[in-house]
Amino acid sequence: MPDLILDAIPGLPEIAAGDDLAARIAECAEKIGGFQEGDLLAIAHKVISKAEGRTRDLADVRPSPRAVALASAHDKDPRHVEVVLEETSELIRADHGVLICLTHHGFVCANAGVDASNSGADDQLTLLPKDPDASARNLRSRLGELTSVRPAVLITDSFGRAWRNGQCEIAIGCAGLAALDDWRGRTDSRGQELHATWIAIADQAAAAADLVRSKDSREPAVRIRGLAQHVTVDDGPGALELLRPSSEDLFR
Question: Which of the two ends of the chain, N or C, has the fewest CB atoms closer than 10 A to its terminal CB?
């Protein structure tokens, strides 16, 4: 098994709508030797969202009666709740001040991924990218144009987890990475057949990347080296293959 080496990419500036994010990343990555074939770029979704203009100013939001009622019941800003509802396909549960939502992408998460932290401006919210897998494909393609190397790209976000405290970074978009490694039907070290082992490579890589950057470090991008066996020439189906069908979701 090769060594796994993770390096935060230093010096990435604040990103604004319309910026050439790939060019900024390529320039900053040169400080750590750039990219080589088989590398993986893990990047926090907020940088993608900012580049794509996926932000909302609270001053521009007019809350609906439903948002006002939910905000009153859960001690929230009704404008924030309105944006959450706009990003929500189904409100699964509202309790203890948390809105558990099914997003239009199919993710089940708190507040539909709408967040005020590290948004870049006061009273501004950052939303999830419209199509994180497409964002990953576009970033990978553009990096290939600029550097002649097409690292796999992983777009990440922090999600809570059933049964456990704390958040963990997971993949919400990817390109060029086999998101799952299916060991079902293979055998363990003792020759016993495995029936349930299905390794979430993309999520584990996302979590590892989060360990080399802190939430206040302003280093949202991480180069991961050592997962070349999971990096693919084609972009692949993306992170959507990680989503469990609702018919198999025991919590809904």
Answer: N
Is-contact 219 179, C-beta < 8 A? no
Domain ranges of the chain: 5-54+129-246, 56-125
Query: Which of 237, 121, 102, 243 minimizes the C-alpha distance to 170?
Result: 243
* CA–CA distances in Å: residue 51 to residues 5, 45, 67, 127, 197: 27, 10, 28, 12, 37
Among residues 108, 109, 142, 154, which one has the least CA distance to residue 6? 154
- State the pLDDT at residue 214: 66
Architecture of domain 5-54+129-246: 2-Layer Sandwich (3.30)
Rounded Cα distance between 46 and 215, Å, is 12
- pTM of the model as a whole: 0.92
Query: Which tokens in the block code for residue 15?
Result: 């990103």
Q: Do 5-54+129-246 and 56-125 come out as alike in CATH topology?
A: no
Dihedral angle sign, alpha carbons of residues 245, 169, 159, 72: negative
Helix (H, G, I), strand (E, B) or coil at 142: helix
Burial class of residue 219, CB neighbours in 10 A (0-12, 13-18, 19+): middle
If you classify domain 56-125 with CATH, what class do you get?
alpha beta
Enter the tokens of residue 153: 């790209």
| pLDDT, tens only, 37-83 | 999 999 999 999 999 999 999 999 999 999 999 999 999 999 999 99
